[in-house]
Design brief:
Blueprint lengths: L3 H23 L4 H19 L1 H23 L5 H14 L3 H23 L3 H16 L19 H16 L11
Length: about 180
């Protein structure tokens, strides 16, 4: 069991580093990385923990994939990000996948703010959010979706990786795990 965390952490880290590179370079998340990472994570959980580890890993992957699929369906991200998050969920397993989702959403928010400021799109982003908000809140308005507005593509794989690395640190160093108070 002493090798479990190092094997899980190094496998996830490798997948996340490759995904950062491909997302920044081509705005794509490699299906091969997601497939092999998922198989690796499920195999490690099963080998070290048994059938209950298999169930925990599948639960974490399903939850992470499903939550981020909802984000994709409302137009906030691409399917590569959804698959990468699902793969990460297999590594973290149930119930820590919940905390990983939270850390990733927080990292995504921080990264998005930094991204729009660094690329000079802060005012345009605020205008877009106001437009969408008004169209959804005020009566007798046609609903506007973010994908209909001019925006800059965000390589969300970076945020997923940041959430993943922070989640690994939170497992190793309990004082970093803000979500343990909830679960």
């Amino acid at each position: 069991m002493q090798w479990f965390f190092p094997l899980i952490a190094s496998g996830l880290a490798l997948c996340l580093i490759i995904s950062i590179y491909t997302d920044v370079k081509s705005r794509e998340i490699s299906n091969l990385v997601v497939i092999f990472g998922s198989i690796y994570a499920i195999a490690m959980w099963t080998a070290f923990v048994g059938i209950s580890g298999l169930k925990l890993s599948l639960g974490g992957g399903f939850l992470s994939f499903t939550v981020f699929l909802l984000f994709a369906l409302i137009g906030d991200m691409g399917m590569g990000d959804v698959k990468l998050m699902g793969m990460s969920g297999f590594f973290f397993a149930w119930p820590f996948a919940i905390a990983h989702i939270g850390y990733t959403v927080i990292a995504g928010f921080i990264f998005a703010v930094i991204w729009v400021v660094a690329h000079g799109h802060f005012l345009k982003t605020i205008q877009n959010l106001v437009t969408v908000f008004k169209s959804w809140i005020l009566p007798n308005r046609t609903r506007v979706h973010l994908e209909e507005l001019e925006t800059s593509a965000l390589p969300y794989g970076i945020a997923i990786a940041a959430g993943g690395f922070f989640s690994l640190a939170a497992i190793k160093f309990r004082f970093l795990d803000f979500f343990h108070l909830l679960f």
